[in-house]
Write a structure and sequence with these properties.
Structural class: mainly alpha
Number of strands: 2
Strand order of the largest sheet: 1-2
Strand content: under 5%
Distance between the termini: 22 Å
Radius of gyration: 23 Å
Oligomer: single chain
Largest sheet: 2 strands, antiparallel
Order of helices and strands: HEHEHHHHHHHHHHHH
Shape: globular
Number of helices: 14
Length: 289
Amino acid sequence: MVLPGTLWFLFFSYLPMVGTVIAFKEYRFSRDGFWASMMNSRWAGWDNFKFLFSTNDALLITRNTLLYNMAFIILGLLFSVLLAVVLSELAGKKLAKLYQTGMFLPYFLSWVVVGYFTFSLLSSERGLLNGLLGTEISWYSEAQYWPFIIVLVYLWKAAGYSSVVYLAAIMGIDKSLYEAAMIDGAGKLQQIRNITLPMLKPVIVIMTLLAVGRIFYADFGLFYQVPRNSGTLYSVTSVIDTYVYRGLKATGEIGMSTAAGLYQSVVGFVLVITANYMVRKFDKDSALF
């Protein structure tokens, strides 16, 4: 029964890991194909990793990537759980489905489309926001606004999708618990605090652990399409993924981009193991493994 799943993992998850050797090579294309290119390229040691850490931007892109992801994890969790709880408390199920669909829809929009939506809102000449505020702020030149804009755009797009997981968990809670609480005189807020949130804790811990594993990854579309690759915003919008992309465009070094991906994966793996160990220490039943 597990054979199809095992084969899928072997071919699509573990076999491609062989390609990580490119991170340690000065990769050069060969007309004989990928394997010949990989085997014939000379070893480069740790040179590809130096691209990330030997520049003045290393601290900047690491700081931006970490802080944005921490904001996404914390605020995304709060908004998603809040949306799920509110949807679960709506009396009209058809109305709840309508709201759920409306919040779910932004997740399916590409970042290119979201980037144009944001531009139509923030354009200095014909932007809706400047019209409403009666100002002429050049949003794409003012870096101090963008940490808030990036976080708001992310929450608008992702919170509805994430709330579905928590809503499904809430729907699985035994209704007799709420009935017993109502008989004891507990109000809605007390039911949420004493029944819903404690029952959601294992799902919250698992989703947070999975998010921690990708804390060194940044959504390329969000950080490239929404700020429209504006150079004046690099101090607050440049993250590891966009930095590597711009470096790849300038130098064409595939080994450098592979090194960045390997670095993000290793750090994410260590963080997941560490976070899971800490969760296991305090609450064994909520840990991933």
